[in-house]
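Notes, p. 3: input format for complexes.
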Amino acid sequence: MSELIQEIVKRVDKVMEGNARPIPLHLPSFIGNEWKYVKECIDTGWVSSVGAYVDKFEKVTAEYTGAKYAVATVNGTAALHIALLMAGVKSGDEVLSPALTFIATTNAISYCNAVPHFIDVEEATMGIDAAKLREYLSKNFVKQGGSLVNKATGRRVGAVVGMHTFGFPFDLDGVLDVCKSFGVPLVEDAAESLGSYYKGKHTGTFGLVGTLSYNGNKTITTGGGGMILTNDEKIAKHAKHITTTAKVPHKWEYVHDEVGYNYRLPNLNAALGVAQMESLPGLIEKKRAIADRYIKAFAGLEGAKIFSEASDTKVNYWLNTLVLAKGKESLRDGLLTALIDAQIFSRPIWRPMHELQMFSQCPKADLSATESLCARVVNVPSSSHL
Ligand SMILES: *Cc1c(COP(=O)(O)O)cnc(C)c1O
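Output follows (386 residues plus pyridoxal-5'-phosphate):
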């Protein structure tokens, strides 16, 4: 085994000292009123598609994030699907989105019958590279009758989707500036960044629409769930309508006025969410303390570093991220094996989207930073109880 792998495993092991093995990558934490609120749903019979906890979950999420409106959905992918529709993405459009993301971002684009168009990320943030995006748009797209059109394919650009990788905010100022100059809306996939801030403002509230996820491995969980964030009242109302089968409110009549979706979050899950939101500030403090231990443990090591927040951001440290130095790519698989052998469950970053069979024919920009990061990034255990 290489000396660097041994040294990294030793340092991660030291950070994880005192924890029972095996150590999973990320576990949920139910330390508050979860049982009480869920039991109340069962006791009262309000378990399904309507109930006070859905409204309450939306309210506390809007308050916490500073978004004017929050609309709960059955999962984060559904939230993204609707966010894209609300941003005006139409069948046959292209949606510019990072190749470095979880599959949900790209799947949601496909659900709109739009074409994902992959763009590169910055090594410093793991999110969209604004400068590269601007250069790419200037070169390959033209403004045509109020739309931005791909010169090669003739397709309109429906939106830019950014994703805050592992909770680290992307360059929001830079990307928003590009979106503004090209007249394209920004959708923020903030599934991983609940509790992360950019210049004092919560991620997911900068774009026209943003989305959160409460899957079991996220910072907080509702079992499964998602949220749409927006400051636009019309979008919020339409998002609520279309995610609840587009039923026209009436005491007894069943009339639906467009093709809607059954993307409602059940009250049972929302009850879990309300309890989790009460714990969220404390959980993030703990996660930030764990990140601090990792950062200190890796200080001064040549060959690998732990990703840390930029000065104008505050990060939830959803998943701590170890990055091997350039030239050390060949050690990644050995490192993962060694960590897992030590019962420290770690994982590589996702296979980038353009390398997946079903998206391999999609248009793409130069993706050199994406490819470089994919060969070097390893996530290490980050549960709040560690
Ligand atoms: C978790 C996640 C989602 C949403 O996933 P769901 O499991 O559908 O809630 C979307 N995008 C990213 C980047 C994610 O990590």
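The longest strand covers residues 157-163.
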